Amino acid sequence: MLSKVHYSILLGALSASIAAQAQDYLPVLQYHHVSASSPKSTSVTPEQFTEQMDYLKSAGFQVVDLRSALDDLKANKPLPEKAVAISFDDAYRSIYQAGFPILKERNFPFTVFINTEPVERKSRSFLTWEQMKEMEQSGGVFANHTISHPYMLRKEKGESDEAWLSRMTNEVDTVEGLLEKNLGHSPKMLAYPYGESNSQIRTMMKERGIMAFGQQSGVVSADSDFENLPRFPASGAYAKLSTLKTKLNAKPMPLLSEKTGGDYATDQPVSISLTFKEGKYRLKDLTCYVAGQGKAKLDWVSDTEVTATAEKPFSVGRGRINCTMPDNSGKHYYWYSNVWIRSSPDQGYVSEKS
After folding, report:
1. Is 267 within the bounds of a domain?
2. Which region is the signal sequence (predicted)?
């Protein structure tokens, strides 16, 4: 029999071994259609999806339930080594027809963010509640993507700020009610249509205990904003396995703080200020890319603080800056992304609110 001392040593060694295998961050993959005939920009073909899922299996990735993993990260509980989560937006029927068999065969859990208007009117291009119930039996989870997939920050003509917020509240609460009514539960997760939110919308999520996703790329960690979480798109231009491998091995940028100047871009070039945590990082290898413009200009304010500035203003629409930095091993990249909205007056966006 082991003595208490030997048992304690063995337990300590086992704990250390488990800790070494644990992961304190989570890459989340985002898909829409699984089809060769739907719009290429938001689609992955069944062959591409099979290739990606086979890679996850062969490379030893642990596909985890999204909500459970988010809860663990928030509580600073370790995830399995090489943990990754799979998600879909928009409740397209191709997910059931082409994606689900591939996931079921590999026993991979997944989450689908559903916009309920086409589901409720029984559109043949979208999932049915019965199909969702079937998918739930094999790891499927169904979450909120609003009723009608609106631009959540745009007001209708003549609409007051109060009426706009009431309409957005209804977009969220109605879907929560339909999930409860038809499936018996809600995971309390939401994906913002087009990735757009502001402080009022994010406060609404927090008040309801809903974790929400934007469309900036990156990995989730305990330091993330759980009302504006990142994901990696894995469809269309991002479906290539070679680039996906880099993202699957990404780590969260080790930031102490960030300053983005708000949710909206103006007629001036955007800039972000990033302050890094204490530690030995390859800061000289930090690179920031501006969508459609190339590299951002980097100004080091101090040894641990940098400002990245775009060369030109963004065009109307959504623009982003992605920053990456190799870790000390060179096997992983730290990853950070921020998205801004450049609106035009005719779009009716609500004003920036603090």
Report:
1. yes
2. 1-22
- For 25, phi then psi, to 5°, come to -155, 165
Which token pair is 323? 């920053």
| Full DSSP string of 60-92 | T-EE--HHHHHHHHHTTPPBPTTEEEEEEES-B
* pLDDT above 50 (res 191): yes
Domain with residue 78: its CATH number is 3.20.20.370
DSSP state of 324: E
Record the tokens describing residue 249, joined without a space: 């091995």
Mark whether 245 and 261 lie in a shared domain: no
Note the pLDDT of residue 15: 43
Which secondary-structure segment (H or E) carries 58? helix 46-58
Contact 84, 77 (CB under 8 A): no
Q: In 10 A of CB 3, how many CB atoms?
A: 8
| Residues 299 and 246 grouped into a single domain | no
pTM given for the model: 0.92
Token reading at 53:
């899922």
Element (H, E) at 18: helix 4-21
Q: What is the C-alpha to C-alpha distance for residues 338 and 260, in angstroms, rounded to an integer?
A: 8
- The pLDDT score that the predictor gives to residue 340 is 97
What CA–CA distance (Å, rounded) separates 352 from 262? 7
Please give the radius of gyration of the chain, using alpha carbons only, rounded to the nearest integer: 21
Which residue, among 341, 321, 67, has the nearest Cα to 198 in the 3D structure?
341
Supply the range of the domain harboring residue 304.
256-347
Closest CA to 69 of 211, 252, 175, 196: 211
CA–CA separation, 167 and 125 (whole Å): 26
Per-residue pLDDT of 200-231, as tens digits, reads: 999 999 999 999 999 999 999 999 999 999 99
Structure tokens at 9: 């040593």
Helix, strand, or coil here: 11?
Answer: helix
Q: Which of 99, 104, 96 is nearest to 127 (CA)?
A: 96
Q: Do 293 and 244 have their domain in common?
A: no
User: Does an H or E element contain 256, and which?
Assistant: strand 255-259
Residue count (the chain): 354
